[in-house]
Each structure stands twice: as structure tokens, then as C-alpha cells.
Amino acid sequence: MTRDEAIIKKHTEDVYKYGFTTDIDQERAEVGLNEDTIRYISAKKNEPKWLLDWRLKAFDVWKKMESPDWAHLNISAIDYQSISYYASSKKKQYNSIDEVDPEILKTYEKLGIPLEEQKMLAGVAVDYVMDSDSVFTTFKEKLSEAGVIFCSISEAVQEHPELVKKYLGTVVPQRDNYFAALNSAVFSDGSFVYIPKGVRCPMELSTYFRINERNTGQFERTLIIADAGSHVSYLEGCTAPMRDENQLHAAVVELVALEDAEIKYSTVQNWYPGDENGKGGIYNFVTKRGLCGGARSKISWTQVETGSAITWKYPSVVLRGDDSVGEFYSVALTNNRQQADTGTKMIHMGKNTKSTIVSKGISAGRSENCYRGLVRISPTAENARNFTQCDSLLIGGECGAHTFPYIENKNNSAIIEHEASTSKVSDDQLFACQQRGIDSEKAVGMIVNGFCKEVFRELPMEFAVEAGKLLEVSLEGAVG
Amino acid sequence: MSLLQVTNLHATVGAQDEQKAILKGLNLTVNPGEVHAIMGPNGSGKSTLANVLSGRPGYTVTEGSMHLADADLAELEPHERAQIGLFLAFQYPVEIPGVSNMEFLKASVDSLARARGEDQTNTATFIKHIRQLATSVDLDPQFLKRGVNEGFSGGEKKRNEIMQLLLLEPKLAILDETDSGLDIDALQVVAEGVNRYKSENNGVVLITHYQRLLDYIVPDFVHVLADGKIIQSGDKSLALELEDKGYAWLT
Ligand SMILES: Nc1ncnc2c1ncn2[C@@H]1O[C@H](COP(=O)(O)OP(=O)(O)OP(=O)(O)O)[C@@H](O)[C@H]1O
Ligand SMILES: [Mg+2]
Fold first, then answer.
1. Does residue B208 have its Cβ closer than 6 Å to ligand 1?
2. Distance CA A234, CA A195 (A)
3. Which of A163, A190, A227, A289 has a beta carbon 3.0–4.6 Å from A197's, enabling a disulfide?
């Protein structure tokens, strides 16, 4: 056995730490997708007519679309009729933590995010999404003092319909892509955030998403609006239980930053990646896009992606306001048979717009990790600037890293810089660490963390620590 | 008990189907407090000996034994060998970009402490100590913030190895051509570092091509390694004789 084979073998014997399921009473829609499913979801949620019509229109669009061509992904067909499109815990609307289903609480404890502890985590408001419904929202009062709205999107539909109606689908139109259309038709729940003019959100907003019900595709819809001069930092973190069948996840996240507003959106994603053959992992097809609508606005995406069997995700920024800024900082780690096709799009439209892309791809096992990025400079984007840096790190000899940077420049005044590198964690480096008493797993963790430093720096403190640990856990056994 | 006991060591290098015998019955005994110099022609197996002792992947021991104090080295993983006090100053120190020297050394010190059931050094004490050591081998403490060996000059890399030796205080230090590529001043810095490390409780194996180093670090024994065996041993006068006559008269 070569060293690489030994590396792979040892790793594939590792078992996903968070693989367990919870038994909770769930209410669910019939399996399958047709107009009635959509009416059922909408009725369950007591939605106004305009929203039902909006969903039905999206369904019409979706039916006419074709599943995208998978480029670098190797994927078996998804049977959309075998998925249940709505599931929610029967108990709803808790006033205190004591009312929450103890099974749910146990789940969070196993994940290392006990609600009790989260509540005490000063400055972090937590809005849990268990399957499709928001289960529990904390810190709401303190936020409302500042005028910040942070609630589930279903609640926002009831309480703030004018805001939802004004912005829903404005950044990611229904027909944007296959999965966005599907999401628009059947979206279940997600978060809604509105930061009023001039308000600096007093705490970081955080949502833990979790897929729990067997056979339930999750279709979250998140909408964040930062009004003029406001500022918000939003954290999203996920993990999911072990599954036999693949689970589809097709979320849509829309961000709107008005004049002088700033949105920082951070994600740590750790969904079940499947077993050593990629079986049972989650398919993650997400559409995330931010609109820098006003002058001098700023949107920053930071992501640490370690989970999912297949990831297909391009958090993007449309830089429409003059002097607006878009950023994308990403760490994507793949192991075993995982496949990731991720990157960003920076669409420059306003004058003096600026974008920065830093992508760090880590591949181990027999995984495939692909960066795909688009920088488009429109004719109107005088003096636009982009800086892109794509680094790949390979661990072992059977994995792949690919980089596809696309540039479309229609304005001569633009300055576009691109840097790329590929490196390998060499046996010599590992031995040098071992010779100083550091075991190889710790050594790989150190090297990988060093490689990701520029991205981790962008994460809020508690997330940065979590992210570092997550990478180490994800690479456990990746070296012999 | 001897510190290092190597008996009839045979080792090969390379993949299973094309193994090449490099060490062919090597014997070496190092007692506490001793300095042994190993000299010999290029390709004779000096670095291989260091690699086999420290457990570098790619080498296979086919016969013989090697012990550090009472531990059978063959039974230990490379990091475990380091943890019981085996130190190798590399002939070609490797760069580890992104991992700062400081972070690397702290991880090293902590691993060793943990393995020995000792408390971890607190970070402030550690930083103070390592800065002093850096200065003592003529390295600007700024180097501690840089990636491990990243962009270091040849001489800087070697001084970095000696700084690590002083930090980790191993039982046995094997220095593989630490003197190669050093200017006169750096050579003295390195030699002075080794002399500072030396005590009656530890041992040094110096692999070198030059008698010059032995003017600064005086060996108790000088061995000539040729074709995978020690073919001649003597005191420091042997090094002078080799300087004069080369290896031809021995082989
Ligand atoms: N990984 C390897 N694969 C194939 N041959 C090897 C390998 N490592 C060492 N060798 C061979 O083993 C022999 C001994 O090498 P070694 O590096 O031990 O010599 P050395 O005595 O340290 O030489 P120098 O004085 O030049 O440093 C050489 O012929 C070398 O080419
Ligand atoms: Mg050598």
C-alpha cells in the first residue's frame, strides 16, 4: 500500500460525528410535487393570495426549465416526485425553552450547540430552523428595541407583508435558475432580517439550520435587507444527521444593501457528506446573491464549506451602486468522494466599484474541488477593480482541484488582477512536523489552518474557532 | 546504559519492487556526554542513517536493531521517536508556508510536554524564551513570525534548526551537515549553539564533510561511513588525516 492509499483508507473508515436522527412528531405534506402541494404549503402557512400566486408562477417557470448541466459534478438524477415538500414540528410558537420538544433540545446538545449555552452566548441572537419551521427565537426583544426585525420568513409574511412583497425575488428572480425556481415555488421557511436606516445591529444574528426529517428536501428562503446607512453581520451554520438516501437542499438567500449599508454574511457549512462512497450525503444547491443597490454599500460573503456530498454554490454580488464593494472569502474542503463546485460572481455595474475574491480549496481523499468564478465589468462600470486569488491545496494523490476564472470586461478603465496557486501537503512537510513531535493529523490541521488564514480572519471570532476545529474534524484520518 | 545503540543495521530505500540496499550492517554506540562525528563520501548513507533512525517514510529496516536508551526505535512512530528525545537537524530543512515558526514551535513544545505528562508552557513565557533563543543564534525574532523556513536563506534555515535544538533539548541530536553552506561567522554561531546544548546527559551525532566544524565542536569519536558501513573509527585526529588524504586509502 502506498502512503496515499494508506491515507485514504484510514480516512474512509472515519464516521461522521454528527450522524444521528431525532424522533419528533412531524406533520408532512404528501410526497410529490404538483400545484396542490404548493396550495397545501401556502394554506398551512396561512399565506396571502399574492404569495400563493407568486409561488404558482414560479412553479410554472420551473416546469419549463431543465436541470442544469453539471459541469464538473458527477451526479445521479434527482426524483423530484419522491420528495416531501413540507415538514414541520407539530408543536409551534414556544414562549419559553421548557416548551421546546426535549428531543429537539437533545439534538442540539449532540451538535454541541445546547440552547442553554447559546442563550447565554452574549450578543448572539439565535433563530433555529429545524426542518422547515423556526422553532425558537431568542433575543427578539433586544433587537426590536433597536428596530431590527429578525424572524422567520413565514412570520414576516404575516407581520411585515409590505417589506416581503417589496423585496422577495428582486435579487434572485424566480427564473434565475432551476433550483431558484423550485425554491420560489415550495420554499418552506428561513430567516427574515430588516435593519432600519442608520441602525447598527446591536448583535450578530445567527441561524442554525438543520435537516432532520427523512426524505424532506429543505427549501429555505432567506431575505436580508439593510436600509440606508445600516450595518449587520449574519451567521449561518449547519450540520445534519446521517442518511441513507440523498437529500436535496436548495436554498435561496437574497441580500439587499441600500445606500451606505453593509451586510456581512458568514457561513460554516457541515452537512453530512455521505459515506466513503459518497452514499447518503446531502446535495447542496444554493443560490445566494447580494445586491449592492445603493452608493457606497458593501456586501461581504465568507464561507467555510466542509460538508455535503455535492455542493453547487456561488454567492454573488451585484455592484449596482457607485463606489460599492463586494467581497467573497471562501474555504471549501472536500474529502472522500465529495464534489464541490463553488465560487462567486461579481457583477460590476456602478462606477468605482470594487470586488475582492479569495478562494481556498482543499482536496483530500478522492474528492473533486472546483472553483468557478465570474467577474463581469459592465460598460457603465467606470474604474472598476477586481482582485482574485485562488489557491488550491491537495492532500494525497487521488483528489482533484480545478479553477475556472471567467472574466468579461466591457470597460477599458477596469483593473482586474488574478493570482492562482496549487500546492500539496508534502510527505516532507509532514515528516518535518513529526520529527518535532507533532503527529501527522495535528500537522495537517496546522498546515490547512495556515492555508486558510486569510479567510478565517474574516469570520467573527467564535465562528473562526469553530471553523478551525471543523476543518480538523473533517480531515481526521486524511493522513496515515 | 548507552544512549544510542545501533547494531548490525541494514536498511533499504524505495518502493517494494525496487528496493535498494543502503545501510549494510552498521554499528554505532553513543554514550551520554559523547560527541560522534560521522564522515564519509557522498552517497555513502549518512543521511539515510539519520532518516532511518528518525523514522522517515520510504525506508525499510531489513535487519539489525536500533535503540534510544531502552526504547526500540523500530516500534515507534516518527513523532513518538521525537517525543522520547530524538532530534534530527535536517540537511535540507523544508518550508511550511502559512504556518508561522512561532506556532510550529509552540505546537512542538506542547506535543513533547503532553507526551511526557508535563504541563504546557504558558504562551507568554514561551514567547520570551524563544525570542531569546532566536537572538542567541543570530536570528532576528522577526523570523519567528514568518512561515516555517519560508524564504529563509540556506544559512538562516540551519540556524533555525539549531534554535529548535536549543528549544527542545533532546536526548540525542543528529545534525546532518548543519555546517554546509554556512559562512565563517554562521559556522561559529552554530557550533556555539551545539556546545551550549551539549551536556553529560545527552549525545550528539555530527554528520559533516569538513574537519573545520570539528575545530569548534570537538568530537570524542570520528567514524568513516562508506558503502553503508562504518569502516574506520578513531579520535579527532582521524578527521585531520581524512582532510589530508581523502577516503581512497580506506576503501
Ligand atoms: N528515496 C531514495 N530513493 C532512491 N535512492 C535513494 C533515496 N534516498 C537515498 N537514496 C540513495 O541512497 C544513497 C545514500 O544516500 P544518502 O543521502 O544517505 O547519502 P549521504 O551519505 O548523506 O550523502 P551526502 O554526503 O551527499 O549527503 C545514495 O546513493 C542515494 O541516491
Ligand atoms: Mg546527506
1. no
2. 12
3. A227
Question: pLDDT tens digits for A220-275?
Answer: 899 999 999 999 999 887 554 445 455 778 899 999 999 999 999 998 877 777 77
Chain A contact for B164 (CB, 8 A cutoff): yes
pTM for the whole structure: 0.79
Residue numbers in A near B168 (CB within 8 A):
436-437
The rounded Å distance from CA B22 to ligand 1 centre is: 8
Residues 451-470 of A with CB under 8 A from B: 451, 453
Identify each DSSP E strand in chain B by its residue range.
4-13, 20-30, 35-39, 59-68, 71-72, 86-89, 96-100, 147-148, 172-176, 203-207, 221-226, 229-234
Q: Is the Cβ–Cβ distance between A337 and A368 less than 8 Å?
A: no
Q: What is the pLDDT of residues B147-162, one digit of tens each?
A: 999 999 999 999 999 9
Which domains, from first to last, does chain B contain?
4-93+166-245 (3.40.50.300)
H-run or E-run covering A393: strand A385-394
Query: Of A435, A442, A451, which has the smallest distance from its Cβ to B88's Cβ?
Result: A435
Q: Which residues pair with A415 in a beta bridge?
A: A385
More confident residue, A9 or A311: A311
DSSP state for residue B17 in the 8-state scheme: G
Cell digits of residue B113? 510536554
Instruction: From chain A, pick out residues whose CB is under 8 angstroms from the CB of B173.
Output: none
Say which DSSP state A82 is in. Answer: G
Which residues of B are less than 8 Å from A434 in CB distance? 55, 77-79, 82
How large is the ipTM?
A: 0.96
